[in-house]
Design goal:
single chain; 224 residues; alpha/beta; Zincin-like; 2 domains; three-stranded mixed sheet; elongated; binds zinc ion
Length: 224
């Protein structure tokens, strides 16, 4: 991997001294890659989904990261090569998650009779999260549960919403509120505090309070 890093660096900066490189594959929840230059050390963290990727793909992502950090123009060939690869990996990964879930917990679909959870997710993602959250598997539950209205399952990267919300009499803001809550679990992973699992921490609750139709949604939930 080192020759590839050096070669890609040289293409962008032919004469500058080589920094020391450090490369790690890291289990990011979504495909994510980061770069940081501190005290002459260039630290690259690549998603472990790219481990074992063909060399042109690794070269593409290294080029993109280095070009970003040095504010050089990014070669469009590299960008499209990388994007094509990631798209196909993400599709494969998602297909696998769906298969696993179907095998284990009877997953239904994101498209309900009244609401499409994929669409609700993307709308909220743009509105409240700058479109930055990777969409997990979205599904309506098999039963109309009143006890478990929604949950995020990190093991399968899936958000399951109780089918009780998929009715004409349920206002969209109530569906959005439940999905928004589960999306906050993506944004704020469970933390350990003094041996205790902290699921709804301070930042989580602050974000939840920011939901514009919080009062109406909570009032409606009482009627379910
Ligand atoms: Zn919760």
């Amino acid at each position: 991997m080192l020759p590839l890093l050096h070669e890609t660096y040289r293409e962008l900066r032919p004469r500058a001294p080589l920094p020391e490189f450090e490369l790690q594959f890291y289990p990011f929840a979504n495909i994510n890659n980061t770069i940081r230059l501190t005290d002459g050390r260039m630290r690259l963290r690549l998603s472990d989904l790219l481990e074992g990727a063909p060399e042109p793909i690794l070269k593409a992502i290294v080029h993109i990261l280095l070009a970003k950090i040095y504010r050089k123009p990014i070669d469009t060939g590299h960008t499209s090569r990388y994007r094509r690869y990631v798209a196909s990996r993400e599709m494969m990964q998602k297909a696998q998650q769906v298969r696993q879930l179907r095998g284990r917990k009877r997953i239904e679909s994101a498209q309900g009779a009244y609401y499409d959870l994929d669409e609700v997710f993307e709308t909220l993602n743009l509105r409240f999260f700058h479109g930055l959250l990777g969409r997990p598997v979205m599904s309506w539950s098999a039963e109309r549960s009143r006890r478990l209205l929604g949950h995020y399952d990190p093991a399968h990267n899936a958000i399951i919403i109780s089918k009780i919300f998929d009715q004409a009499r349920v206002p969209r803001l109530a569906v959005e509120y439940i999905v928004y809550h589960e999306m906050l679990h993506l944004k704020h992973p469970v933390k350990m505090r003094g041996g205790r699992r902290c699921v709804h921490g301070k930042e989580f609750r602050e974000d939840e309070e920011a939901f514009p139709y919080l009062q109406e949604a909570r009032l409606f939930l009482k009627t379910l």
